[in-house]
Amino acid sequence: MATSNESKTKIGLTINGEGTEVAFASHKTLLEVLREDLGLTGTKHGCELGECGTCTVLLDGTPVLSCLVLGLACAGRDVRTVEGMASAGKLHPLQETFADLGAAQCGYCTPAFLLTAEALLATNPKPTRDEIKDALAGNLCRCTGYIKIYEAVELAAARMRGESAEPTRESLYGA
Amino acid sequence: MARKSSDRPTARPPDRRIIGKALRKVDAVAKVTGTTKFADDLAFPRMLYCKLLRSTQPHARIVSIDTSAARTLDGVQAVLTGQDVPIPFGILPVSQDEHALCLDKVRFIGDPVAAVAATSEETATAALDLIKVAYEPLRSFDSAEAAVANPEPRIHDYGDSGNLHKLIDLEFGDADAGIAEGDLVREDLFFFEGSTHLPMEQHAAVAQWSPDGKLTLWSSTQTPHYVHRALAKVLGLPAARIRVIATPNGGGFGGKSDPFNHEIAVAKLAMLTGRAVKITLTREEVFYCHRGRHPTLMWVRTGAKKNGAITGMHFRSLLDGGAYGSYGVASTYYTGALQTVTYNIPRYHFQGARAFTNKAPCGPKRGHGTPQPRFALEVHVDKIAEQLGIDPAELRLTTLVPPNSLTANYLRVGSMGLGRCIEKVIEGSGWKRKFRKLPNGRGVGLACSSYISGAGLPIYWNNMPHSGVQLKCDRGGGVTVFCGSTDIGQGSDSILAYIVAEVLGIDPFDIAVVTADTDLTPVDLGSYSSRVTLMSGNAALQAAERARQILALHAAKKLEIPAERVTFADGRVFDSEDRKKGMPFADAVQVAEAAEGTVGTVGSYTPPKSAGRYRGAGVGPSPAYSYSACVAEVDVDPETGIVRVPTIWIAHDVGRSINSAAVIGQVEGSIYMGLGEALMEEMAYRGDRNVVHKIPSLLEYKSPTTLEMCDVVTYLVEDPDPNGPFGAKEVGQGPLLPVMPAVANAVYDAVGVRIDEVPITPEKVLKAIRRKAKGEEGRVGPEAFPDIPWPEPTRVPTPWEGGDGKAVERVRA
C-alpha cells in the first residue's frame, strides 16, 4: 500500500544477513514491509489471514506467517526470505532439488515451502517422510500434490548430509 | 501455413536427446529464487490502487448509486460505475452477459457495482464505504432446482426458457430402443457439488495508459487473447492500441480463463487518470470471481448385455450455472460429450440444462464439465458390473472403444491406451487379491476417464490457426521462440524450448522463450482445454523444422554434402556420415544469415476438421484423447464415517511425454485436486433469501494439506498419437477425472454403502451406514431429477446407421 499521508517509523533489522534500516507506517505487517518498502517480492501472499502459509519467512530462524507479524515487531531481529537462499550465484541445495524434480510448478507457494523446509532441516537433518509432512502441513500448494516437494526435501537433506543422492527413477519416469 | 495432420514430416532424428527426458523447466530457477514476477509483484511510479464495491444483495435492482462523498475523499482519483463502461462482454459469443460494473441490477453477492482508484489501497477501501447504493431486492434462487421451478423473476432477460440459460437435446440413434435391447437396464441419480480452483495467487492486474493512446494490461490471466478482445470491445479502442501481457499465473486451473470485470475496471481507470492502476483481489473476492465446477445433478439409464456390453444410454444433466454465462454453454455440452470415448455406446441420448442462479458464476475448472458425468458414469458402471456379477475391470476391458474409430456422437478417437492403463493399475494395486476381499472398513475402487487435448474448434469460429509460433535464430547461436501461450505452472514455456531444442539439436537453455504478450507473440488461444502442448507444440515443431531446413541448406553447401545428410545435435551441425565434418550451431546460423539475411521462421497449428456436422458438434472433438485408469484404496472408519485414502495408483496414456517429470507432476497434481473434490471441497452457500457464500476463505474451504494427501503410484503409458508433437497428448486435466468415482467405488467396497454424490463427507458416509443398519438402502444421493422443458431432440443417425454427421431435418407438422 502507498503510504504518502502516513507518518512512518524507522526500524533496524537484519534481512538475509545484511543490516537494513526501513521506515514504514506502523500498522504494516512484515509481509507488506518486505514487499512494498523493501522490494522483496519473492515473499508471496495467499490470504493475508494466516491460513495458507504462502507468506512464510524465517524470523530468527523460525518459520512465521509474515502476514500476521507486525513490521515493528521485527526491530533488531533476523529475517530470512527466499532472496537470501542462493549465495554467490549458487542455488541452495533445496532450490536445486525443487528445480530438478519439478517441486515448483506455478512457483507461487514455493518460497514459503523452501524456507519452511530449510528450517526443518536445520533442526532435523534426516527427517522421515511423516516428519516432512508435519513440518509442511501449514503450507498449501494447489499444483503439485506435495509429492515432488517431499522428494525434493528428502533429496536435498541427503545432499546436505554429504551423501551423493540422486532422484529415484520412479519419481522422474514413473513406476 | 497451418499445420494439418496430413502434412506431417516423417523423417525425424531416431534418438531423442531432449524429448521424454526429465529436464528442469526453463523457468525453474526463477521460480525457486522468487524472482518470477507475478502480476501483484509489479509496481510503477505514481501507481494507483483500485478496489471494487461489491453487491451485498444476491438479486436486486439498482435504484441509485451515490458516489459523491467517495469522490471528494482525499487521495481518490476516480470512481466508476456501470454507466462508465456499459458495453457487455463475456467469454462466449453467445453469452455476452457481463458488465465491468453492474448496470441496472446485481445478480449475486459479490457482483461489482463501483470501482475506485486512489493513491493507496486503504484510501480506496475507505472510499468504498462512502458509496451509497440503494437496492430493490428481487427474489433470489440458490439452486438449479429452484431456478427450474421459478421461471420468474428472470435473472437474465435472455436464455432458452425462464431461468434456464441453455437447453440441449441430442440423440444419436434410437437410444430407448438400444437400452431395451439390454439384458439389464439400470437407472441412477448422481450429484456433483460445485468446487473452486483456489489458485494460491489471487487474481491481479495492472493497467497503464500512455498519452499516445496506448493501453497496456498486465494480468494473471490464462487467456490474454480473449482479454485483448474483451478490452477492445468494452473500451472501444482499436485492438492494435491494446497490449495484454499475461504474467506467469500463480496457478490457474481454469479460474483465470475468462475476461474479468476487474481487468476492465483498472484499464478504464488508467485511461481516466493517466496513471498506472493496480488491483489485487482479496482471497474472499477470488471466491466471487469463481468460474469453478458447476454443481451438477445427473440421471443416467443404461442398457447392458450379460457380458457388460452397453446397448444404449440416456444421460441427463442439470447444471447450476450461477449468475452469468461464462463458459457455461460449453460446460453444459461437455457434461454430455465424452461419455462415448471410453466404452462403446452404440446409441446415445443426451439432455443437458444449465440454470442461472444467484451465486458466483460457474465456468471451467480442470476437466471442464466432464468430471461430473465421469463420476456418474464410472459409479454407474461399477453398479452394473456388480449387478451382472462381473469384475468391473473385466467389464471395462471388454467394452473399450477401439483406437482409430468414430463414436456415436462423431468424435474421432485416435490412439487409445486405456486398456493398457487398466492393466497397469490392476496389476500395480493388487486389485485381484483386494477387490471384495479386504476386511470391513477397507476397500478398493476402480475408475477410468478420458480428456481432450484441446478443442477441435475455437471459441470464436474462424479459419485461422489455434496457435502460432515465431522463431528467430541469433548469429550467436541463441534461438528465441515467440508464442502467445501462457505458462500457468504447467510448463508450457518449457515445452516450446524442448521441442525447438530437439529439432535444432541445441541445449534448451540456449533458447529464450517469449510468451503471452499480444504485442510480441503470435496468437495462441490460451491455456485451457489442455490444448497447449499439442497445439503450441505442433506450431513450435513446424517453425523449428522450417528453421532446420534453411540452416541445413546452407550448411550443406558449406560442407559440400547433400542437405539430407546434415544432422543437428549437441549444439553442432554436421555430416551424418562423418561427425567430424561440421560446425557449431552458431556458425550454421551465420552461414545461413550471410546467404539469406535474418533467419526467422513461423509455424502454426490448426486441428483437423471434426466429423460431426450437427448443431452442438463443436464441443467434444479434439485432435487426440488422453486416457487414465485409477485404483483408489480407502480406509473407512464405520464409527465416524471418516474416509482416508492411503494410496492411489494411476496410469495415464499421455501419448508421449515431452518431459516425463513434468508429466508426473501434472498427474500427481491432478490426483491431489481430485482427492479434494472427492472428500472435502465444496462451494457452500447459505440457502435462505440471502444467498451468501458460507466459507469464502482458505481455512474454511477445505482443501487437502500434506496430512490428507495420499501416496500416488504413477504409470505413464506411451501410445504416441499421430496428431501430437512427437506423439504427445494432454496430461494436465485428464488424470483428475477418475479420482472421485474411484474413491466412491472404494467406499462401497469398504463398507457397502453408495455415496452417489461428492464430496464424500463423513456425515454422508455415516448416514448411509446407519440407513443400511436399519435395513434401508445404504445410499446417500439425490432422489429425483426435476421436469425440464426439453426441446425437440436434434436427431443424428450414428455412423453405423448410415449417418454422415449431420442432423436429420425436423419434419414440421
Attribute tags:
heterodimer, A: 175 residues, alpha+beta, Ubiquitin-like (UB roll), DNA polymerase, domain 1, 2 domains, five-stranded mixed beta sheet, 6 helices, 5 strands, B: 813 residues, alpha/beta, Aldehyde Oxidoreductase, domain 4, Aldehyde Oxidoreductase, domain 3, 3 domains, seven-stranded mixed beta sheet, 19 helices, 35 strands, globular, disordered N terminus
How would you portray this structure in words?
The complex is a heterodimer of chains A (175) and B (813). Chain A has a 5-stranded mixed β-sheet, sandwiched between helices. Chain A has 6 helices and 5 strands; from the N terminus they run E-E-H-E-E-E-H-H-H-H-H. Chain A folds into 2 domains: 8-84, Ubiquitin-like (UB roll) (Roll), CATH 3.10.20; 93-173, DNA polymerase, domain 1 (Orthogonal Bundle), CATH 1.10.150.120. Chain A has helices at residues 30-37, 93-101, 110-123, 129-136, 147-160, 169-173; strands at 8-15, 18-25, 56-59, 62-65, 78-80. Chain A is α+β, with helices and mostly antiparallel strands and 175 residues long. The longest helix of chain A is centred in the middle third of the chain and has 14 residues, at 110-123. With 813 residues, chain B is of the alpha/beta class. In chain B, the strands form 9 sheets. Chain B has a 7-stranded mixed β-sheet, with helices on both faces. A 7-stranded mixed β-sheet of chain B has the order 33-9-14-15-16-8-35. In chain B, strand 20 and strand 21 (479-483) form a beta hairpin. Residues 1-14 of chain B have low confidence and may be disordered. Chains A and B meet through helix 2, helix 3, helix 4, helix 5 and helix 6 of A and helix 1, helix 17 and strand 31 of B.
